[in-house]
Every structure is written in structure tokens, then in C-alpha cells.
Specification:
Helix content is about 60%, strand content about 10%. The protein is built from seven helices and three strands; from the N terminus they run αααβααββαα. It has a three-stranded antiparallel β-sheet.
């Protein structure tokens, strides 16, 4: 295997790998963390440079982008991203100041707040999605071999078919 064919996941060695202390599942988990860490590191830089927002704020936009013109309650966003509600409130405020999300009260619930993408955010994501997807693709290619990537993609659910969207959006 040439140096250009060597992937980060192939180079990652747990110190105790040869001693039998770590089971295969733990080694596999460590390899997966190394690959996802490589993707996240590259994506953080590209997101900051192209969108001028943090990676965590980008994840919020991505989650909201998956909602066909509907809003999510703040509690749903926090739960889906596994983020504390206090941190999420700060991030949503930053996104709102940037004109990327809109907040509104939930009808019939004094304490409920929902958030949705603005048209500005949808346009921005549309303009940068090819670059961002390419960043993820390249980071995966650099950290995994073709068979590893194929196995990873087999675990990811297929995206919904827009033609089958009952809302018609």
C-alpha cells in the first residue's frame, strides 16, 4: 500500500491492540471516532469560513433544514441534538441576530418557543451545500478506505424521496 493509499483509520493503533486487552468492538469504536473527528475538524473550518457560524450552529441549521417549511420547538431541537437547553438558547439567539432563524411563540403554550429557518438561511445552505458535502466526502476518503466507507453508508438510512413527501413541499 503506497503512502497515498494509507488512511488515518488504517494508521490508528490503540496502544494495547496487540495485547488483547481491547475487544474488537472497542477498537472499531475508536476507529469510527477517529474518522468522525477528522470529518468534524475539517467541517468546522469550512463552516466558519463560508457561513461565519460555529459548527454547533451549523448543526442546528441542518436539523431545521430537514423540516419542510415547519418549525421545531426549542425542546425538540435540544433533544435531537443532545444539547443543554441553556446553550441552545444562546446559539439560537446568535442565529437569529444573523437573520438565519426566526423564533415564535407556540400557540396555546405561554412558555413554548419554536424556531424555523429563514429564507436567507435556506438560500445560504443551498449555495454552500455542495462545498460542505464535498468537505465531508473528502475527509471520509482521507480517513477510510472504500470498503469502510461503503459499510458506513450501509448503516445510514436512505434520505426521504421528495416525490413521496405527503406535504407536497
Amino acid at each position: 500500500m503506497s503512502a497515498s493509499d494509507t488512511h488515518a483509520a488504517d494508521q490508528f493503533e490503540c496502544p494495547a491492540a496487540g495485547s488483547g486487552l481491547l475487544p474488537a468492538e472497542l477498537r472499531a469504536w475508536m476507529l469510527l471516532l477517529a474518522a468522525t473527528g477528522a470529518v468534524e475538524q475539517r467541517l468546522r473550518a469550512v463552516v466558519k469560513e463560508t457561513l461565519d457560524i460555529s459548527h454547533d450552529e451549523f448543526l442546528i441549521l441542518c436539523l431545521l433544514a430537514e423540516q419542510p417549511r415547519t418549525a421545531l420547538r426549542m425542546t425538540q431541537v435540544a433533544d435531537l441534538l443532545g444539547r443543554p437547553k441553556t446553550r441552545l438558547t444562546y446559539q439560537i439567539a446568535c442565529l437569529q441576530r444573523a437573520g438565519l432563524v426566526a423564533r415564535a411563540s407556540v400557540c396555546g403554550d405561554k412558555r413554548g418557543v419554536q424556531v424555523a429557518l429563514t429564507d436567507k438561511a435556506r438560500d445560504l445552505l443551498g449555495e454552500t451545500s455542495v462545498l460542505l458535502a464535498g468537505t465531508v466526502r473528502q475527509a471520509l476518503e482521507d480517513s477510510m478506505g472504500p470498503q469502510q466507507r461503503a459499510a458506513m453508508w450501509a448503516l445510514v438510512p436512505d434520505p426521504p424521496d421528495p416525490a413521496e413527501d405527503p406535504s407536497g413541499t
